[in-house]
Amino acid sequence: MExxxxxxxxESLEYLVNFDNxxxxxxxxxxxxxxxxxxxxxxxxxxxxxxxxxxxxxxCLQITNxxxxxxxxxxxxxxxxxxxxxxxxxRPYKINEQGIVTGVxxxxxxxxxxxxxxxxxxxxxxxxxxxxxxxFLLNSDEETGSMYSRELIERVAANAKHVLVIEAARKNxxxxxxxxxxxxxxxxxxxxxxHAGVAPQDGSSxxxxxxxxxxxxxxxxxxxxxxxxxxxxxxxxxxxxxVADAAFxxxxxxxxxxxxxxxxxxxxxxxxxxxxxxxxxxxKYSFRLNRPPMNASQQTEELCEAVSGFGREMGIHFDWVAxxxxxxxxxxxxxxxxxxxxxxxxxxxxxxxxEWLDTKTVEPRLRLLQKMILYCIDR
Length: 379
Ligand SMILES: [Zn+2]
Description:
The chain has 379 residues and is an alpha+beta fold. It folds into 2 domains: 6-180 and 294-378, Zn peptidases (Aminopeptidase), CATH 3.40.630.10; 181-291, Alpha-Beta Plaits (2-Layer Sandwich). The chain is built from 10 helices and 18 strands. The strands form 5 sheets. A 6-stranded mixed beta sheet has the order 1-2-6-3-7-16, with helices on both faces. A hairpin with a 4-residue loop joins strand 4 (94-95) and strand 5. Helix 2 (26-42) packs parallel to helix 4. The two termini are 28 Å apart. 46% of the residues are buried. The structure holds zinc ion. Zinc ion binds at residues 78, 108-109, 142, 167.
């Protein structure tokens, strides 16, 4: 019967960190799934692999202690990272004297999955779950917006009473009760090609048109309201001496309120009704709601308060924050389920080569997670 032990935790973490698990590296995420499937099954949990409707990403893993689907607690985690193949060889598992581990996906989120594993198996092995119905759902494409797993998440969450997203706590220890919504816009500018020396006036520059959009879009930023608009990529044109007939950009929009998304959408619509460029170059755009905003409901606030109380009792200090980053908690919060996030160990530097996990926080945070789970069962 498995109990939390730091040496075995680190051994498993080293194994997990030392292979690639990018969202589009299905054999990598499948390896994470296989690892946890075996571990949970060995401790008497039911496990089920869900293939997604594409070969591009690996399977999802559902772990439960019951046959029903009205879970008291649904834990959400993801098995993918943002890194390309080859990263794990470049940056293998490393631990320093302060107990800080670095490596691919160490806090986002292999180290968090592992902490949740110990939290759950201990509770079950010690017979503390009683009639509590628990599900732990691990998806394989969270970092790319859960495009293929969203339906599964919403199906599994449909009758859940609480959702705990086991992302790492912020670097100062804070947890997350609100996240921005995310909207993706793709821009496609169409102009008229012409020789830049012989007859530039016969052309209409797609790049000039798109550049005007970029300036106008960045003016929509309202950080105080939690709204950000970022043109993240731009490309276009055929050659230096050709008036560009095509240009493209990808825009990331974050928002907390539906009204802000509407403001942004009408700005896009307004821009598309005109042309800034002689000759009539124009931009067409498409829109996709990547994630709805996760706002704290009254029930979520109550849950946060209870968790803060446990923290005080245990001498663990943290606050609750809103963040611009999205997670699968956005989906479950939008379904009206009390959802909190960042309940894993403390880490930081996510999505960068500096990513780290503080292993000194693993045991205290997993004990806190156990209290949260028991509280949700009793509630
Ligand atoms: Zn993550």
